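Annotated sample (chain length 304).
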Amino acid sequence: MQQPDRRAMSWGVAAGLTLVLMGAAACGGAEEPAEPPAAAMAPAEVIEPEAGTIARAPTADNALPPAILGTAPPPRGVDLPYMPDDAETRGYLAVPEGPGPHPAVLLVHEWDGLTDRIRQTADAFAAEGYVALAADLYRGRTGSNRDENMALVQETRGEMDRVVANLDMAARTLRERADTTGKVAVMGWCFGGGIALSYGIDGEAHEATAMFYGQLVEDPEQLRRISHELYGTFAANDTGIPPADVEQFARALTAAGIDNDIHVYDEVGHGFWLFVDQDRETREAPALDAWQRLKAYLSRTIGV
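Output written by the structure step:
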């Protein structure tokens, strides 16, 4: 198992993040008003077993989860304070019905923070059969415009030790639950995609990393520290992460001996997957393919 304190995370990865965020189309709905936080629930130690439980309803092979189509109901999970001595940091937990044990997924939000779209996506993974925890890297805050989002990103980049500790604790919280198998996948979008990749390199050991766009690492020596296959979805019209950079990233993964499922989708741009409803005609087909790839990836790495 990789030790969380053995070296600083590869946050050279994040050094170019500002250019990516400024040059690319804003992540999904980042320019829309931030969604209000879900109502706070009781701390984890007093939550009844049925609280935050989501009915099992896996998507059909030709269907996308309602969360990314903009048709999901309000979040049905619960807030979860998972950081000791940090009451401001409250993740969001969604649990599938049934005793389990279930594999687990740890979601890392976009640059605007833990919004309801991320909570609804956690619900979607619970419906697929995963215990899902959406981490909170901003201590309960969200951004409502580019300037606010960039301020949060830059502040977080200046506290990367705290981010590592945050995700380590979130992953441990999932592994130590009685209703999980102990297997954890970490995934993220945009800002969260880069965080997920870097955490795959330098965080505590876990079984899978899935990134949707996000800042890349092209150094095989760093990538060799990943202990599992990596999933990546990218967009041909992403000006911040052009296809040539993705190709170089894939070559670096291969050179490092890391199995990978990397794909660049034509005709779509940055942020297309999490917000299919913003251009359903263009985004639905590639989003469905990416979803099917993701489900297959999770099945072979952590189960379900």
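Annotation: The CA atoms of residues 175 and 182 lie 4 Å apart.
Annotation: The chain has one domain: 13-301.
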